[in-house]
Amino acid sequence: MNVSGQTRCEMSADPRAARTRAALKEALMQLLQYSDWGEITVAGICRRAGVARSSFYEHFTTKAELLDEIFTDLMCDIITSARPGDPLGTLDWLVDHVAKAPKFFAHAMAGGRGDTLLPRFRAALIRRIEGELTARAISNAGAKAAFLIGGSMAYLAEVNGSGTHAILQEMAARVLA
User: Fold this and answer.
1) Within a 10 A sphere around the Cβ of 45, how many other Cβ atoms?
2) pLDDT by residue (tens digit) across 101-142?
């Protein structure tokens, strides 16, 4: 959140800076489709984006920071509810997100794509669902968030198919009861 109270999702930026950031994000996402994290370099991201390295460093300090912003942007679409008993928006979003690229996710969960991508994704999800649980006044929100995300990701790596939303929501309800 910035000083005006806007989140990153709501912020408007200089159009040139926004284009540069968008190009860098898109380049990293494209590179992740066929390269492991350790193989991807800032120079490679910049080459793919058509951006000078100096421009990269005007916006980000590391490729991990760029990845974190991608996760933050992705998760802006999560619709949450503070009402107990409502489905957890973060879990529903996770199911939908994994369904877009199940092979990529399963490969990452099996140790592919390097040792940075999945832990950072998991951490971003935990922060997001922890906020959702805190808004519902759930005790031990951080620990329960970690358990729910870890378990949900493991489940999604093993199972494809219909009914996944309901199954994860049912498991979450049991943990939160």
Assistant:
1) 23
2) 888 888 788 877 667 788 899 999 999 999 999 999 999 999
Question: And the tokens for 108?
Answer: 């990452």
State the Cα–Cα distance between residues 154 and 72, nearest whole angstrom: 21
pTM of the model: 0.82
Q: How many CA atoms lie within 13 A of 56 on its CB side?
A: 24
Report the distance separating Cα 87 and Cα 157, nearest Å: 21
Could you give all domains of the chain from N- to C-terminal order, each with its CATH number?
A: 15-61 (1.10.10), 78-176 (no CATH)
